[in-house]
Design goal:
93 residues; mainly alpha; 4 helices; elongated
Length: 93
């Protein structure tokens, strides 16, 4: 049985997609708000990994690197903004 790289990358993307369920559970159930924010950050980083794996599958890694860098910047800024917002609103109580 011959395994080519395309099937390997596709199976890795599927495996990371399954592993993605763990941070989704933390986002859904997280005991505190900051646990949920960490779950969102973990979901974002694993999504970047999946995007890069699809870049390897389609043999267009250069294009998918640009997409994943843009998504990483948006994910980072979004998590920081949510953290500052919720930290400020939590101190109001």
């Amino acid at each position: 049985m011959e395994i080519n790289m395309e099937n390997f990358f596709l199976s890795m993307a599927f495996l990371v997609g399954i592993i993605l369920l763990i941070p989704f559970y933390r986002v859904y159930r997280g005991p505190t708000l900051f646990d949920r924010l960490l779950g969102v950050a973990a979901v974002g980083s694993k999504t970047i990994t999946i995007v890069l794996l699809f870049g390897l599958i389609y043999d267009r890694l250069d294009m998918f690197i640009d997409i994943s860098l843009g998504y990483a910047i948006l994910n980072f800024v979004g998590v920081i903004a949510m953290t500052k917002y919720f930290k400020k609103s939590a101190s109001d109580y």
